[in-house]
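Can't paste images in this forum, so I'm doing it all in text. The chain is below; anyone willing to post the predicted structure tokens underneath?
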Amino acid sequence: MPHQILSFLALGLLTLSIAAPLTSSLSHEKRFASGHCKLHVTQHQKNEYGIHDKYQFDLRLYDAIGEIIGGENSAEVADLESISSTSQLPYTIDMSIGKQDSNKLRFSYAGETWFTGSSTCSVGGYDSGRREMDCHFTC
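Text version of the structure:
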């Protein structure tokens, strides 16, 4: 009987010692599927449909397998200003805007920079005070 108790305790301790580090390391680690990520942006025109003198943006960041890994809701950005958005990615997504609705948006991530007029982005026209766009980048 002492042998059976010792075996049970050894098994229990072994299971506990393996499980504890995995649980604690997972809670501090950010996870995403690397490859080609997508940034979906909704830009709300200023001075239209209840939006005041600053642009408003909704951002959704998707990893390479289409999982949402970050975003912003109703982020206000003044003319010629920037916003940095954190996510599960190791670096922030930075977005800079111009002064007029027709100005291109500038994005950057980990040293890579692109504009809404580039081949990596598709941008719709304004409809009911907002426009939608999707940009792809290496993550």
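The two ends are 57 Å apart (CA to CA). The longest strand covers residues 68-77.
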